[in-house]
Records
---
Amino acid sequence: MKLNILNYRVNTTHDLISPLNQIAELVSISDYHAFVYDPAGLHIGGVTAVDADRRKSEVRDLLSKKGGIVLAFLRPETVQDWLLDAASTTISNLVRMTVRPGAGSQFKTVPSAKGVMGGYLQVLKGKIQFTAHLEASESQLRGLGGTIFAVDSVGDPIAVEFVVGEGRFCLLPPPTNIPADRLGAAMVKVIRDHFNKSAQMDAPSWANEITVPGANVHDQQIKELTKQTEDLAAQIDVLRVDRENLLKYVGLLFGYGKAVLEPVVRSAFRLFGFTVPEPEEYQGEWDVELRDAGSGSTALGEVEGSEGFIDVDKYRQLLDYIEGETLEGREHKGILVGNGFRLLAPDASERQDQFSEHAKRGAARNEFCLLPTTELFKAVCAVLDAPEDQALKVSIRESLFATTGLWKFDPSR
């Protein structure tokens, strides 16, 4: 049987999965073998009572008349998930009354659980980031045909499967940071297991003693190939992380604030060979602290992203930090990192002169370095292009400490 799966608002792709773009769209859920949805998207664009009733009726038909399966993420928004009513009012009432927000990645699977959700947890091992749990006991869920497949670190269910007639309604913990095709493969595995009935049948104890000629001839090869598959998946994940970490440097050209610009600025300085602690590792309130092990020099930096000039406010803040440290007997270089006119292209004329006259005069008076992130990005690219060139890194570190006023990357250094 070729499966037909309908998907609403889940970032997943597969040859067997088709999108439902709007709740009001003239597509029937019951025409499919399975329905996948994210409850966080159920209220997007507004939903009329007529459309909601129609969709609940279609899901009931899918479950009860076709023996199909529904996969939904368990989220805090599940408390408003009106599609749960299609499973049964008792199930929906229990779930909505007991769902609680709470994010985490540490959880335990229940090895004795019988059903189809185990494949999802297995395929996405290490990539689950649950955002909610149920404050419901095993007996409460079991009384409604529910099976717990995974619990968080305190034992609350985060993955539950309900049997509804011949169908199944599964509440899944959402994954994090995985490609859409991998999520699609995990969901298709669950749906295939449901229709194959392979995970539903409890074999009698004596069945384990029955042998079939040739059934185990491929066991070793299966084991080896499974290990290779897991190793390749792990390698791919590592490569993706490396790629994403490198692409984060583009944020130097348009980012601002503590969430985007400051972390990537610190990462850039580390690339040059500076020791750069995270803010929680030092006592001050400044954005960046640099230590050059070779020279023993230190610097404090403030980072500012702006749609206009980098003005005197951040300069004054940096000056306060430098003077406060001087009173305590600690001398530092001041570096003002600016991403002015950040929404303009890096080669725009405004970005070549982004520090205000007040900031430039103050920097000259106190021997501060003014560091545009456009120039910082050029230096980052040069180091990434020649990662073994230690002389280049030393040159960049020394020039940052030696520069008063505007710093420009000089590839000939």
---
Amino acid sequence: MGHRGRDPLLFTRRDFGMLALAGLPLSLAFAKINSKFKGVQIGAITYSFRTMPNPEDIIKAYVTIGLGEMELMSGDAEKLAGAPIPITGGRGGGRGTMTPEEQAAADARAAELRKWRMSATAATFKPVKKKIEDAGIQLRILCYNMNVKNTKDDEIEYAFMMAKALGVKAISTSTQVSMAKRTAPFADKHKIPLAFHGHDNTKDPDEVSSPETFAAITALSKYHAINLDIGHFTAANFDPVPFIQQHHDRITHLHLKDRKKDHGANVPWGQGDTPIKQVLQLLRDKKYDMPGNIEFEYQGDPMVEIPKCVQYAREALNA
């Protein structure tokens, strides 16, 4: 059931503002948001709203657009939980342009944030889970990115603790193939799927990008899984449709975007080479239980463009 029986795509910023002025809490103003079309769950990763620094506004954006499923970036989860906000970039706009004083402040904040993370408990994130679910949104995936060069083992443990506290079904991560050897024991211990996100850099054997790299990762743990980004997979000149058919039991969820082949650009849906329509119809026809999460990366306002993506999905599914 959507917002009081109304199509959530027709729910405008003005409507939301009127509810806010009325002082209505979201839990009372909204029922559970329904963005499952013909059995296919359409959601989004909060990265799609990265132009919004306040994750409270991102939650409101999901409600406004009518997105009923969320893949929550760990940084957004931490902001909602009251973590110290890291300092990134100097007056020139990049980390390399920081003055010595700015760099010292950034380093001090990073140390403060690490201390906060290592002292966090399940109770730290329970209010985050409640806030999202009270808005009518299903919190299904936590995105916690790792890097083989600087992610410590206690930070991997922290990721699984956060995932359990948030009650998600899986963790997604953008990382390297070689990181899988380190994450396997943690995934086995906690019995939570850890889904590796693929990109299109097929030249580097340590980058997750190809069927072979996904096979190497999933061979190391039965809890290692796949977060297939069908746009990147297409840009790397692979076909996501037969890959999904063959490996659907190891795919936790998809990232939906349109890209050109041969490592081409991100473009509005329908203008690239990614078979978005065929993928969505495959999920519908085979009844695969994997959300299709919009990862908005082409130019434009997410509050204008993401509703277009939702409508594209609805039309592709004849919903």
---
Amino acid sequence: MVACSGPGCCQTGDGEIVQRHTRPAVLLLTASTGAGHDSTAEALAATVRATLPGALVYVRDVLRRGARDTVLRADRWYDRVVAQAPRLWGLFYQLTNHEGMVRLSVAVAGLLWGPRLRAALDAGRPDLVVSVHPLCARLAARALHDVPNSPPHHCVVTDLVTVHRCWAAPGVASFYVATRQAAAALVAAGIPAARIHVTGLPVRCNFGGPPSAPPGGPQIAVLLLGGGRATRVLVRAACTLLAAHLPLRLVVVCGRNEHLRQRLAALGHGRATVLGWSDDVAALMRASNVVVTKAGSATLAEAFSQARPVLTYQALPGQEEGNLALLEQEGLGRHMADVAALPAAIMELCARDAPRCAAERACWWGGAAARVVDHLVAAIAATRLRSDPPWPG
């Protein structure tokens, strides 16, 4: 479970949620398959609390069990597959991107994780359920279908452009997507356009506000990111930049891969700042001239919100390929399939003039969470005004 409770939130020591019916309650369903879903849930939770003081906000990762249970923890096998066999992940993505395979996968997932989800619903008794993961959306749709007078179910799609069929869960009242391309993908999957809102992808509150000017000085400040659990590709990118003998000030963030952090710290010989997990990537971005990263949706949205030029060096087949076109469409960077080309690309990006619309677009990306929560608050108000509350007793 992601520990995420607001003032007055009632939880037992083992994480059990106890509902207080006098306050509005929101249940956010996420999964730690990559860091993007959790960061979206965190952004929404903080914005709901700021907008509805006293609201109970529960964030549950329903696709994991105990810390020792590696079989039923989706994050474990996801991290290993995308790190060691990204092409295999791309094949899996394509094979399951059909309604028949989605239904079969959801049936299996329901046996593994359905009871955990139903327990979260029964314990929390929320006024609103919000899914930020495609499998959570499908499992919640199944579970809520069996609940008399169930609370409304909303879904925040965390993919920027390419939307897997699993996101198109039946019974979802509203979908929130980052781009018009993502909205079109949901319509093609059978979701009525009236249920879809183009809001941008919610980013955490420390990414809000107008973007700052990039740092000056003789050195180019480069922020090198590898996602929640960085892979060996990050090592190659870091070594390439260190060997380029350019006037760079390099900061490398390895996420939760402690082995990789130690290895890079040794290889850098003090010429780079090497960090593990960082809770304030926003500050690191503001202190940078260029962001170099894998093409994860959440990281790109965060960089867009800071108007920082971006170079991507890795994209998951299928899932993240659409992000590469969006990167150029936003006018903030491009993809470099060969990490050897990163130094020249950094110099080229720094020589460009920033697009005139960069600050305006940055503010739009930074305001996504507030736009989504405006809709969620309206849905909560409508639910609590009903004469027949969703959870009797």
---
Amino acid sequence: MSLFTPLTLPNGTRLANRLAKAAMEENLADADHAPSDELIRLYRAWAEGETGLIITGNVMVDRRAMTGPGGVVLESGEYRDRFAQWARAAQSGGAQVWMQINHPGRQMPAALGQPTLAPSEVALDMGRFSKQFSAPRAMLDAEIGEVKARFVETAVLAEQVGFDGVQIHAAHGYLFSQFLSPLTNRRLDGWGGSLENRARILLDVVAAVRARVGPAFAVSVKLNSADFQRGGFSADDARRVVRMLNPLKIDLLELSGGSYEAPAMQGQARDGRTLAREAYFLEFAQDIATAADMPVMVTGGIRRLPVAEQVLRAGVDVVGIGTALALNPALPLEWKAGQASAPVLRPITWTNKVLASLAHMAMVKHQLRRLGRGQVPNPAVSPLRAFLEQQLDTVRKTRRYRRWMQGPQA
């Protein structure tokens, strides 16, 4: 079996190969928070690279709850044509295209001016950067019910506009990940306490989505292999959640890791000198995958062909690639042709881990904006330049978001 062997999913649909464009947050929505021309152009570039699966960046289920300004929101059929164009562009190279759907919970920038909801009143601890996020209010039972309904409605809308599936985001410290972690879920009701209770909202949403969409529409989950915080969501917890997901017949489980407080999903591997450490969630995934009845995908730092092949040999079904595809959208075609392409960003030597993580995200978004404008990526961009550029872009889009929220739809 090679990276270019097709994979038939549990629902009977087929991925043309084992390479996936993993989700990256683009913040490239238009003024209506629908897909912009730049976003559609970006996905056409990835389509031309011929990965078997393309997973979109965050699509929010509630305009009041954003991971950042400039995010896409799908909560009605108002901009159906724009979403349909996005799906068609991403599918134009033969890939399956899934919409990642998400709610930030407490990981919502305070500058957006919206109330912040979370499982419990546990604020983010990011040192001097903590003030960038408002302290959350614990969700009422009715609000949990509303969020569940919103995830289901967004999934149904995604199917209606032409996407092939959805990925329900339960990793990286966002809302469902917050429910799963005992550090951020201190509830004493049926949504907290035992892992079964903490996983309940995720399991309810997966089951409800599966019941509402067609059998050929893929339903997947992104789960942390661990959140890398003492006393938090562990690899053993992840294994137990996978066993809970097995009866729900999901089509793919993506394993990643980290959160805003412990951003293992950002930056480079701890030691780039060895192949094993480049695929830095692989060891966790191999262990957790033993509990999985569904195909498993691993994402995290993969940029070289030998590493991608190693991941496949380890028993993982799909290799997720993020940053490397922002730097070279044609990477799958080059690997298929036997080229040893290994795109890499300029190293970040900053000692502050939070700033370094923000700079890394800014450098990636710099590439996404260039691709969206029809330009070639610039892997050598200065971390400082990208960071400052991102700060200015965030300020501008935050103002635009706040004006949008004051409009007729508010």
